[in-house]
Amino acid sequence: MIVISEANSSDFKTIREIAQITWPVAYGSFISKTQLDYMLEKFYSDATLNDNLTNKNHRFLLAKENENCLGFASYESNYLEEKIVRLHKIYLLPETQGKGVGKLLISEIEKIARQLNHHAISLNVNRYNKAFNFYTKIGFECIGEEDIELDFGFLMEDFKMLKKLS
Question: What is d(CA 59, CA 57) in angstroms, rounded to the nearest whole number?
Answer without folding.
Answer: 6
